[in-house]
Automatic annotation (TrEMBL):
Top-rank lineage group of the source organism: Bacteria
Molecular functions (GO terms): 3'-5' DNA helicase activity; ATP binding; ATP hydrolysis activity; DNA binding
Name of protein: ATP-dependent DNA helicase RecG
The family this protein is said to belong to: Belongs to the helicase family. RecG subfamily.
GO BP: DNA recombination; DNA repair
Domain Helicase C-terminal residue range list: 458-618
Function recorded in the entry: Plays a critical role in recombination and DNA repair. Helps process Holliday junction intermediates to mature products by catalyzing branch migration. Has replication fork regression activity, unwinds stalled or blocked replication forks to make a HJ that can be resolved. Has a DNA unwinding activity characteristic of a DNA helicase with 3'-5' polarity.
Keyword Protein biosynthesis (UniProt): no
Amino acid sequence: MMDIAPDMPVQYIKGVGPRRARLLNKLDIYTLADVIYHFPRDYEDRTEIMPISRWQSGQVVNIVCKIAGPPRRVKPRARLIISKIPIQDGTSSAYAVWYNQKFIEDRFVPGKWYFMRGKVNIGYGEIQLLNPQWEEISSPDERGNEGLVPIYPSTADMSQKILRNIVKNVLELVKGQWEEYLPIELRKRYDLAEINFAINNIHFPVNARSLNIARRRLAFDELFCMQLGFYSIKGKNDVQKVGAPFRIHDIGLEAFIRRLPFALTGAQQRVLDEILADMSNTRPMNRLVQGDVGCGKTILAVLALYVAASNCYQGAMMAPTEVLAQQHFQTLQKFFDGYDISIALLSGNMGENKKNEVLEAIKDGRIDVVVGTHAVIQDNVEFHRLGLVITDEQHRFGVRQRAVLEKKGGNPHVLVMSATPIPRSMALIFYGDLDVSIVDEMPPGRQQVETFFIPPSMRDRLYSFINQEISNGHQAYIICPLVEQSDAIDALSAQELYDQLKEKGIFGDSIGLIHGQMSANDKNEVMEAFKNGQISVLIGTTVIEVGVDVPNATVMVVENAERFGLAQLHQLRGRVGRGQHKSYCFLISNAGNSDAGRRLKIMTKLHDGFKIAEQDMQIRGPGQLLGLQQHGISELKLADIFSDIALLKQSKEAVQMLADGIMILDQRSKLLLEQRIKRQFLNNIDEITFN
């Protein structure tokens, strides 16, 4: 057992103190253990020091050099200041060069030694090291051969050198006594390094091979702990909870389905069968239904609510926005028209008297179905007999929020709807606490939205096209990344564009504005006006991204499209093409042939949400796409879902071995693993189940 406590406050670590502790807190580093698990984001290979005499243009080099004199400043044109610091290493001389960074000139002292790393530029009779990274050193011998040097996620006023020294001090304090929590048979089975070797070599690797061995062990730990956490949540649902089995066959469900204005697709019927099988079981349903935009998930929620109401249980449907809650409420009113099923909308902006009436009706059972936003999980909401909980757009709700709603009923059935389509294998991992159903078929007649990537210079032609669509009785969305103009971000804001278009009268008076800073009432009014055709062009932010359904809208324009993820762009594109008319999506960006431009071109070629999500994961990582932190899980720091497929399978197999009792953990290992899992799940899990 280690003498030093992992939860030792970071300020008491050598080299930290109160001021630096506050800086470390900005990096979510509060304890000694947090320092250990603050892994490098990259490494610099400082194996070879390259003398200036051997430099070639275009090389990235390491140099140990002395400042040869005072800085020089050149101003070749307006808004360009070049700072040149003369350097020498005994073989030749050069300039370290920075652009528009005047402050850098005060950082260097003539005669002192520095380590630098940067790109070489040779031209016009001058040797330059462009925008190098640098550290002051005490002597030229200090940088003899450092090998792979860690580069950490950092913050202002916390240099890499200081951060590295803090990590070194922690590792010296631990002295190889960090407690191992994986049993030796598991490590042997999967050829995993011992924990102290892994921790030392992830921070200060002896060589590239040692780094790979360390990374593999710690990436396995991340995946193993994540899946063990999900297993714990699901295990409680599977074993500890007993819910109400619903009748399915004598409640008029078949007749209700026959009355629908459309036939269910094969995929909808298959997923419905899975939902009904769950709801007829004493084990409460805990199912994720995911599918592409427009695949018809909402009707599955309607049918599940019908089953609950027909069994004399209440259903609660929770949406992430007021606009979407209002839309769900109207959809349910339409489908349940003529049935003895009472529906209520519960929103945060209701008047006090009206809200109290609804709360009383929910409490005494006069309301069968409640639709709302976060208002549904407030303490003052008491259900008479809650039997079904539906959360729409899973990535907008965290583990805690969903759990609060579940606790309002006696183990209700839970159905989660997500329009973030990801491959089934990944869904089983990232939504490991849920059973997974996929609606992988689109309803007949659903139009493919033609997508174009255009430069800002084509706006006038685009506006003419939109006016043509308006004259044909159609409508358009224009989405901006910002609500208001920002000096820090070069992007068009919704307010700015609205004011411009209003002033120029390009679309007449039939123009509206919607964004997240508006009150719920104002947003609902604007959306109603758009749905009713009073507004032809709606300018907004991504507040309209989720679920909004206006079949008459045929054009989606996204300004500064490079600022959005692919999955988000696909969601936005899914707001059009919902009717019988040909629909279009225009992605406006200056990105051209850059990486961002190539990413946007993917959208013009792909229309399958699963393939787009896969591309987005590879570009941005699964954490951002799935909103892991909102889901109640920390981002994966080392594991990569695409390149670590083998580790993923092994970690899942290891969890199953624990569950089946094939592998037994001692009490100390359980305690250490529990601490590790709770850290990864941001303390959103109260109890860990190992078998």
